[in-house]
Amino acid sequence: MTNPLPVRVLPAARVDQARLAAYLAGRSPEAAARAIDVLREAFRRLSRHPALGRPVGNARHELSVRFGGGGYVIQYRVDPDAVIVVRVFHSRERRPRF
């Protein structure tokens, strides 16, 4: 087994996480905390298995993460020395091309 790669979360993805958590926190603080935990666990999985998501071109990937009735989409790329999380969206959100 290879060593896990560090995961770098870009500022835009951090803003996405905060936005998604704030939306949930207005309805259920517990659900917001669980959502963040689910995303962090997905980042850990990507650290160990960078090719886990589906390729979307230009060495970029999307990983779908189930949560509640929907889920989240993590957009990332794999650099030689790190997994770079670029954006995080709710699965039902319209998202820009990656």
UniProtKB/TrEMBL annotation:
Domain of life: Bacteria
Keyword entries, A-Z: Toxin-antitoxin system
Pfam assignment, any one: ParE_toxin
Family membership: Belongs to the RelE toxin family.
Name of the featured protein: Plasmid stabilization system protein ParE
